[in-house]
Design a protein that fits this description.
The protein is built from eleven helices and twelve strands. It is α/β, with parallel strands linked by helices. The protein has a six-stranded parallel β-sheet with strand order 2-1-3-4-5-6. α2 crosses α11 and α3 runs parallel beside α4. The radius of gyration is 21 Å and the shape is globular. About 2% of the residues have low confidence.
């Protein structure tokens, strides 16, 4: 019997009988806990797989690696891909050619956290040139390795991959902030607390956000209190948020680096969140996922880089996304805020189950 068909039968049997163990090997770049989203992603999801009785292996491809050795044996190899995860210069042909050979005739899951660079209309000539090279290396790897399952977390990547002939399914990227049950959801007070969590990107329309906030404050009759939660990435645009607050007389608080417990507490005390990640790639933002999972409505912006027909938000959060370039969003947002807070959504367990469904 073909190995893949046998594996699917075993997994289907397991879902009913809860006793068949599957050995899954996660292949990632260099381990960097707390500073690399992919590392944190794998560390969280493997805990759920282990709870379900599966055996987990980790295989790290270090920066500058030239030879791949000691690849563990496994039923499934899950490659967590981003172009700069394995080398600061991007994809290296030597390493990925070796990996493709080692994984031929194996059950492979390829999960794109990011695809090649320059895959958006306003990319520079340099980005498009590097992206063309990366794209061809990726396609070469796919042709040699022939993964059984290809997934990604965001609309833009799925759109680009499908247009190159790579059939790609959606796999939710969960937040990396577990729920702190010792915290209490804040009662709405004299201010409306707004969470900025995650990287603040330069291309976000901060002036338009300021106008939206002013309308929001005037409509609800409350002063806005902006909370910059957690460590701010070097090169981010926190200063633009500070300038926006000063210009509009909004209150501002910077928490600095916090534990996941305290970040969860901050999210529970806020009434809404802002994601400066473009709408079409919002699915690759673990910080935005954390805000969704904590029940927050989230303000976002569509930069128009991906066709509207290809855009989507995961079903559990469809009612939590509000666009700042939609003038009707202010009233809709305030109506949502007045509703009882949604229960915490366990994204880790959700993705672990969806991944098992995918391969069964």
């Amino acid at each position: 019997m073909h190995t893949l068909r046998r594996l699917r039968i075993d997994l289907a049997w397991h879902s009913k009988n809860k006793s068949i163990e599957v050995r899954i090997c996660f292949i990632t770049g260099q381990k960097n806990s707390g500073k690399c989203g992919i590392t944190d992603y794998v560390e969280l999801i493997l805990q759920d797989f282990e709870k379900l009785g599966h055996e987990i292996e980790r295989y790290f491809i270090k920066q500058g690696c030239r030879e791949l050795t000691d690849l563990p044996s496994a039923d499934i190899y899950s490659i967590q891909f981003a172009p700069y995860a394995y080398s600061k210069y991007g994809i290296t042909y030597r390493v990925f050619n070796q990996l493709a050979k080692k994984l031929q005739n194996q059950n492979v899951h390829l999960n794109f956290h990011e695809i090649w660079v320059g895959a958006y209309p306003r990319a520079s000539w340099k980005e498009k040139t590097i992206g063309w090279l990366q794209k061809n290396l990726i396609l070469s790897f796919l042709n040699k390795c022939k993964p059984a399952w290809v997934t990604s977390s965001n609309a833009a990547a799925i759109d680009r991959l499908n247009h190159t002939g790579v059939s790609t399914k959606f796999l939710y990227l969960f937040g990396n902030i577990p729920y702190s049950s010792t915290s209490k959801v804040a009662v709405i007070g004299h201010t409306l607390k707004v969470a900025f969590f995650g990287t603040t990107y330069a291309d976000f329309p901060y002036d338009e956000l300021g106008e939206f906030f002013s309308s929001l404050s005037k409509t609800c009759g409350k002063q806005l209190e902006i909370i910059l939660i957690g460590r701010q990435r070097e090169g981010g645009c926190a200063d633009q948020v500070l300038s926006l607050c000063k210009k509009n007389d909004f209150l501002i608080q910077r928490t600095g680096e916090l534990s996941t417990h305290l970040i969860s507490k901050q999210l529970q005390e806020c009434s809404l969140g802002v994601s400066t990640t473009p709408y079409d790639v919002i699915g690759k933002s673990g910080a935005t996922a954390a805000m969704f999972e904590h029940g927050l409505p989230v303000l976002a912006y569509d930069d128009g880089d991906t066709p509207e027909k290809s855009l989507f938000i995961p079903d559990p959060f469809e009612d939590q996304i509000f666009m700042i370039n939609d003038h009707s969003s202010v009233e809709k947002l305030l109506q949502f805020i007045k509703k009882p807070r949604k229960s915490f959504f366990d994204g880790v367990a959700h993705t672990a189950n969806k991944m098992l469904e995918l391969i069964s």
